[in-house]
Amino acid sequence: MENRSNYVMVGGVVMALLVAVVIFLIWIANAGSDTEKEYDIFFRQGVSGLNKGSVVSYSGVPVGQVRLISLMPKTPEFVRVRISVQEDTPVIQGTTATISGVGFTGVSEIQLEPPQRSTAASGRVPPPLACPESNAAAQCPFGMPVIPTKPGGLGALLNSAPQLLERVSTLTERVTELLDDDNQQSLAAILNNVERISGSLADRSPEIAATLAEARIAIRQAGAAAEAWGQTAGSVNQLLNEEGKPLISDLRSTIRAAEKSITALESTINDARPGVQSFSKQTLPEVGQLVRDLRETSDALRSITTRIDQQGAGSIIGEPKLPDYKK
User: pTM of the predicted model, to two decimals?
Assistant: First the structure.
């Protein structure tokens, strides 16, 4: 009976210890969950070197660890990473996450970065990152706030490595084509020509200096000429302003007087037009008849004087005598 009672006592003590351990573990788990916050991060890049339990740092200070890494079957370009951080970690709106490598060990960690200074320059601290009350399923698909990612870090470098290597390979091929034998000879000839040109320029440096000096003098003279032209233009402008107005007034008076003279001449011509017409229609024909009569009279007088010269004055009175003929 005593042995059986001892066994019962020992078993009871063991069971009590087991229950106490379970209760303690449950308390620890609940206490840990109460002092930590969880977030989801969707990386659109490889997460090489990142594992469960990897460190999560905030501005370089360890604040938590990675809880879960899983693929997204419906959107395979994304990798979901759930992290847990200490409750007092300032994960506010504008906080971003990147994957950074730790040395050359191949191990990676998640680096949380606070908002940029321009975001907090207003003096107001942004609110903590949390799921919105409206449309929570779209912005928090797994029930936890989502920290946006920021390009950069080792993951981005590794993802861009194939494109970088391809571009380096293409560049190497083009450089090889550029530096073939024919192009090397062409480059050598170009360098020789450049050397000769530089030597010629060095030999003619005094002439170049003299040319530059003459050009400087010409520019100075051109500036002086431009200034003198400006002064002349100012003088002409002043002369036009001072004496141009009286000249223009005199010219206008002269034009008005000329217009009056032309008007008077037109009226005079209009008044003389009937007399001119009468002179041309009546007087000119009579003058013509008089000229014809005078011409006939002069012809008759010319014939009389000719007869007097040849036959004497008697030829005018009587008939001319017939000549005597001797037998």
Answer: 0.42
Three-state DSSP state, 146? strand
Q: How many helices (H) and strands (E) are present in the chain, helices listed first?
A: 9, 6
pLDDT (tens digit per residue) in 100-141: 877 666 688 999 999 876 454 556 778 888 888 888 888 888
User: Interior CA angle at 49 toward 44 and 54, to 5°?
Assistant: 95
Contact 73, 67 (CB under 8 A): no
* The token pair that represents 145 in the structure block: 């706030």
Rounded CA separation 241/239 (Å): 5
Overall average pLDDT of the 150-169 stretch: 66
CA angle 166, 169, 172 (to 5 degrees): 150
Beta-sheet pairing, 61-71 with 107-113? unpaired
Query: Cα separation of 112 and 60, whole Å?
Result: 8
Average pLDDT over residues 54-79: 90
Of 19-33, 61-75, 106-120, give the range with the top mean pLDDT: 61-75
CA distance 297 to 54: 155
pLDDT digits (tens, 9 = 90+) for 283-302: 666 667 766 777 777 776 67
Q: Smallest Cα–Cα separation from 99: which of 144, 162, 23, 42?
A: 42
Q: Strands, E, within the chain: which ranges?
A: 36-43, 55-58, 61-71, 79-86, 96-102, 107-113
| 153 close to 101: Cβ distance less than 8 angstroms | yes
